Amino acid sequence: MIDFHLHTLYSDGSYTPFELIRLLKKIGVTSFAITDHDSILGISEAEKIAEELKLRFIAGVEFEAYYDIENEQYVHILGYNFSKLEEIEKYLIKLRAERINLIYDYIELFNSIGMSISFDEINSLTPGIHLTTSHIAAGLVKKGYASTFEEAKRAFLLPSSKYYINRNHYTVEFIIDMILKSGGIPVLAHPCRIHMTDDEIETFISKMKLYGLQGIEAFYLMSSETQKSFYQSIALKNGLFVTAGSDWHSPEDNYNPGIELSYEKECEICVNLKI
Questions:
Q1: Which of 11, 99, 172, 209 reaches 20 to 30 Å from 91, CA-CA?
Q2: Is the pLDDT of residue 215 over 80?
């Protein structure tokens, strides 16, 4: 059993690397990656524990990558097996600082128009240390300033809003290029969650291949069998390989980590990820 999409409390999961890897060992996962959102803080700890428990491990990160800035639409790109982490680390430190500063700017804005919300209230919405503009929207809903997540986004977070605060958006092309320059392997995460038609996603993935995309997470735990077959066909057509991941965060997910495929397919994925 394998799993190349897992989270710890270093992003928005609830387990430490030790707790997660101990669980993987118990349920029979033999090869895995920790792919925290915009964080590499758990990598060194995970490497040590995986070696002690005789599991095969590769470092990973899940990046946010924009394809439609006007509508705040992005995909997640998984980066694996970096040969150098300096550029990744600099980017992640810069990104976290930008996001925290943006949250404080929005809090100041909200308070100026009579909306009472604090940084601690927004920060409490993540079980780990992962903070994005999505947590701002979730905070507004929780406080009753918006009925839905989408309403909060439209009112404050989209460029069309009069309350919009400008920020950096890192594009699909930028993220893939950064992963490649760091000696890593870029893979499109959970394509089933991208809001596109089948034709649109096929065109989109072909475009990403031109940027340097190398793989697709076709065996995503929440994908249907029809979707898995479709993503495998897109991968074959574009000369991409496929990967497998559960996107597990905590016991509250109500499913276990781990993807069980044929021995041959699991070996193929491991070879392509250079594990």
A1: 209
A2: yes
